[in-house]
Amino acid sequence: MITRNKTPSKYVYYGLYLYFSGLLLRRAAERLSYIFKRNHVSIWNWIQKYHPKRISSKRKRIAEYIIDETLIKVGSQYIWLWVAIEPRNRQILALNISKERNMLIAERFISGLVRIHGKHPVSTDRGTWYPQACRFLNLDHHIHSHYEKSIIERKMQYIKDRAESFDDYFPCKMKNCNLNHIINWLTLFVDYHNKERNR
Asked: What stretches pass through the bilayer (predicted)?
């Protein structure tokens, strides 16, 4: 009887991380092989099973959405990073990037949350785009309490530091880049972060 060795999840994530960093499959497998022997076909299979566009499809028990946005630098351009967390377990519910910040982008981000997790109250800073978006989506909206402000600011800084570190090590050299490599890497990072918080 042939037994197959299942690859530990930390090595699967590292293989995906290498690929989303911009390495070719063979080069990613070569780097991974320094710590865990797997070939490029294994990494290709992991990519097929991983869906980087969606952070979570499972419904969670959610008290409210705590949402914020911050400006980050990617290569030579600045982009807006949008993040939503849940206050009880502080998991990241959604994450996105945009080149602008306005009511339409805020509404699209929040409507994506509602589509996956249902309608819940929304807590934000004093940005004028949030109340308008919440009214349009028929959601209760309030300004962050001190506690909510504290946890979202810490989480934003945590993500921002890692996003900018990623760009330092793996700068994009493409002209007019669509930034898909950044959103793929951030989504992979969030997926791993949430699994670690669930342990």
From this structure: 12-29
